[in-house]
Each structure stands twice: as C-alpha cells, then as structure tokens.
Write a structure and sequence with these properties.
Blueprint: H1 14-31, H2 48-78
Helix pairs in contact: 1-2
C-alpha cells in the first residue's frame, strides 16, 4: 500500500460548467416571463407567448441531450474509459 495521496480529477471542470449551463439556461428563459409576455410577433397566427414556449421545449430537449452526452464523456474520462 502506497503512502502517496490519491490523485483525483478536479470536481469543477469545463465540461461540468457547460453541463450546468445547458441545464440552467431553459429555467432562466422560462422564469423571465417579462421577455416573452407579448402577442407580437406572431408565427403562422400563433402569438409569441405560445410559440416561444413551444420553441423552448425543443431547445430544452436538445440542451438536456447535450448535457447527458457530456456527462457520459466526463464519467468515462474520470473512470479511465472502463465504462
């Protein structure tokens, strides 16, 4: 058994910061109601208020998938590619 301390990767990495931003961005966009609480511009007759929120459903799904893939890559790197 070695007396050398175990070397661990840092807890906060650039990948984890990007993951956090991917997961945090939709919350900020939806909680800032004043930015989208309006009718114009309409899109195919749908008021901005509604199509903006529906657009964020798609954006949120893409950001969540990105965060998940980055998390998988981060975990593989931390465990030496054994997973």
């Amino acid at each position: 058994m070695s007396d050398a301390p175990e070397v661990r990767p840092p807890a906060v990495t650039p990948a984890r910061v990007v993951i956090a931003l991917c997961l945090f961005t939709p919350f900020v966009a939806m909680l800032w109601v004043g930015s989208y609480a309006k009718v114009d511009p309409t899109f195919i007759g749908i008021p901005f208020f509604y199509w903006y929120q529906m657009l964020w459903v798609l954006i949120s799904a893409a950001l969540t998938m990105t965060a998940y893939k980055l998390w998988q890559r981060d975990q593989r790197a931390r465990h030496g590619g054994t997973k």
